[in-house]
Design a protein that fits this description.
two-stranded antiparallel sheet, disordered C terminus, Arc Repressor Mutant, subunit A, 12 helices, Four Helix Bundle (Hemerythrin (Met), subunit A), 2 domains, 2 strands
């Protein structure tokens, strides 16, 4: 922790000691520091003794703050002699996990999620086509994805992973941060479920044929061509047709199944 940041915490400590919810107040200060980047992703927080000294509050209040932040997914607390709290800045993966739990608790089906993506994903292809820097910032990356997809045609489950990566890249390069986050979160959720489907389909010999996989490659190439040409309407329509066709295979198996949060569990996240 920097000298200035320690001073900030000490300055706030006098106010905290008068609050009936000191732990929550400490958590709020640390949360703000994580969200504004003062505490960087992956950074270890100071030891408990140092936090007690900096905030001038009780050890119990610091522990309560850590429990709050851990529940929010903003820190991972490792206990023991080599313990400590590591910062996790919020990201799309965490948002996807939280959303998956909400959807699972409400019994939301894959079919419901499929309809959502069918309408929203094509918007991202259109936005990519309208970006003035698409020739340098977008098209080379999509062409590279297409080359990798052609190489993976014979590898079944790996083919699904690479194909989903293309979709995620189109969303990530749309140029609108809010759209990237919201639709990107849904993309991560669908992709996690798609990998589960792909493994099952491969084991049961129900994976789409090589000819069908080749059609997917061609669809990606057509979409990329429209993006390169700057034709937003054609890019959007081609992406919509492709999404509808691609979803058929998974929905045959899972349309009425409830979304599961298990593939996105935060406790599998690297620290």
């Amino acid at each position: 922790m920097s000298q200035d940041r320690s001073a900030d915490f000490e300055h706030l400590g006098s106010r905290l000691r008068k609050s009936p919810r000191v732990g929550a107040e400490v958590a709020a200060i640390l949360r703000d520091s994580i969200l504004d980047g003062s505490l960087a992703n992956g950074q270890l927080l100071p030891k408990e003794d140092d936090l007690v000294a900096s905030f001038r509050v009780s050890r119990q209040s610091i522990r309560e703050a850590m429990r709050i932040l851990e529940t929010e997914g903003l820190v991972t607390v490792q206990r023991g002699n080599v313990g400590g709290a590591r910062v996790h800045a919020p990201n799309a993966g965490g948002a996807a996990y939280m959303l998956s739990m909400v959807l699972q608790s409400q019994g939301t089906t894959f079919g419901d999620l499929a309809v959502t993506l069918r309408h929203l994903e094509p918007i991202c292809a259109e936005l990519c086509a309208l970006r003035p820097d698409r020739a340098s910032a977008i098209v080379p990356r999509l062409r590279a994805h297409n080359a990798s997809l052609r190489d993976a045609v014979a590898e079944e489950a790996e083919f699904t992973r690479v194909a989903r990566s293309y979709h995620q890249t189109v969303v990530a390069l749309s140029g609108n941060h809010t759209i990237e986050l919201i639709i990107g979160t849904l993309e991560l959720l669908w992709s996690a479920q798609a990998q589960t489907w792909a493994q099952r389909a491969t084991t049961q010999r129900e994976y789409p044929s090589r000819s069908q996989r080749t059609q997917v490659v061609r669809a990606h190439e057509r979409i990329t061509d429209h993006i390169e040409a700057g034709d937003g309407d054609k890019a959007r329509l081609a992406f919509r047709r492709h999404v509808e066709a691609a979803q058929e295979h998974m929905l045959t198996w899972a349309e009425s199944m409830t979304i599961s949060s298990l593939p996105l569990r935060l406790d599998t996240r690297p620290v």
